[in-house]
Amino acid sequence: MGMANTAKAEQDTTAAARLDVPVVVLSHRAPVQFRREQGKRLIRRGAGGLVTALVGLAGQLDDAVWVCAATTDEDSAAAAEHDGGAVPLVMTAEPTPADGNEADDAPVLGVRLVDVDPEQHEDFYQVVSNPLLWFIQHGLYGLATSPNIGRTERDAYEQGYVPVNEAFADAVAEEVEARGGRALVMLHDYHFYLVADRVRARCPEVVLSHFIHIPWPGPDAWLVLPADIREQILRGLLGNDVVAFHTERFARNFLLCCQELLGLPIDLDTKTVRVGGRVVAARTYPISIDVDALVEMATSDEVEELAAELQRELLPDGQQLLLRVDRTDPSKNIVRGFLAFELLLEQHPELVGTLRFLAFLQPSRLDVPEYSDYLGRIGAIVARVNARHARAGVAPIDLRLQEHYPTAVAAYTLCDAVMVNSLADGMNLVAKEAVTVSRHHAVLCLSESTGAHAELGAFAVTLNPFDIQQQADALYAALTMPARERADRQAAAANVVRGNDVAKWLDAQIADLRLLTGLWSEEPEGPRLAPAARD
């Protein structure tokens, strides 16, 4: 059997390949973006593991549709041309409209772009989703002073978050109903906590899962919200068959919320909660990266050229390179990271002039005051460190407020250590990317508060995100670690990432849903999970 046939045979053994029902995906971010240049419509495919995994799933199915938000004028125009229905696309590297004449194995995906009222979307996204839910779930509020939930926040929830969730739920339900009411619906993230319950009410035969990509805190954190709002959020999520998280801790926290805030019976051994006549499962699927795509990019001519340029600029005399790649989100703990670096240089002056810190930071949500204030604090601490520790006109911190993924990948290949000191992260894919393509056996300095720590902590230098002295000591340990230990740790971490890539992440979810719901006509081999997700 040739290599292509062998690969096809292996692919057909996955749970995804055995699906015999349509799939409807919902996320706020679209897998593509429509834009117009010089009068011509262009379609750009989104980046990231989620798009790669779900587009790969679509390529194995006869019927898949992705429901998402229209975020550009051209998105809205494309949606209007299809009367608000799905736009069929061939999801190759450069997506093209599908015309029905594609090859049978072409990855055709319907993209339904939902155009909602701008004022409603503003309340839904900028007031409730970000920052309110994001801050609660990342533990970012200082409760003595914030948040203050008043009429503005209540109106934003009732007149923004609720109707926008209803609009997306209706779009999903319409897609399910168009397919006879029988489909697998895969919901994503904190924007759509109210969708599942509404979809189930319209489509009782549907199978629903909701993957939450950010942390899920314990019951006390949710007491910030008014009782009726937090109950609606939990009840909305309990419309699913499976609510999925990155870590066991997040899954347990969700079940404890159901018990303590709703008074529902839970079983921590089977990770289930009973609601009405149904059993809902909480499950753990740590998301990963598209390893093959990342390795291909890391060996591309573009990245090789960028790496050579970084080498000339930052490391002309064999200096060591510390790296971080982040959004300027307060949850990323960037200021404390620079404070720890400042301590490192003060306590180990021999590193001054021999160690560079490259920070690629993407400005994030600057229309939210907390985010813009935080960016200002980042700039202030960088200026202070560079003023105190510059040598021969060379500043120790090279701060780049930009997003250019190929340059970040080039830096991954060069760095001696990578710093991830987040206060809270659902996963953190930078950690997985860096160890996968490192050529200098980079030591991963990883916060114990990231989801990635559950998988990679044994091979990392652990960081306490609040203890800047401990972080400084950990950075020093990483930068002075013996070469053999560095190589062993990096190789072991890379093997974990390769063994649990994004394709496996998706396949594990589908396999569980087959076992839990009995939706598919072909019964899987082996015992069913107990108790089943339906009574």
Condensed summary:
The chain is α/β, with parallel strands linked by helices. It has helices spanning 3-11, 49-59, 73-81, 118-138, 151-177, 195-202, 219-222, 227-237, 248-262, 291-298, 301-314, 334-347, 369-389, 405-414, 429-437, 453-456, 468-479, 483-499, 502-517, and strands at 23-26, 32-37, 40-45, 64-69, 87-90, 96-97, 108-114, 184-188, 207-211, 242-245, 266-267, 272-275, 278-284, 320-327, 355-362, 397-400, 417-420, 443-447, 461-463.
Structural key phrases:
disordered C terminus, globular, Rossmann fold, 19 strands, 11-stranded mixed beta sheet, 19 helices, single chain, 3 domains, disordered N terminus, 6-stranded parallel beta sheet, alpha/beta, 535 residues
- Strand fraction band? 15-25%
Q: Name the average pLDDT.
A: 91
How far apart the termini lie comes to 45 Å
Coarse morphology: globular
GO molecular function: alpha,alpha-trehalose-phosphate synthase (UDP-forming) activity; trehalose-phosphatase activity
Family: Belongs to the glycosyltransferase 20 family.
GO biological process, one term: trehalose biosynthetic process
Organism: Motilibacter peucedani
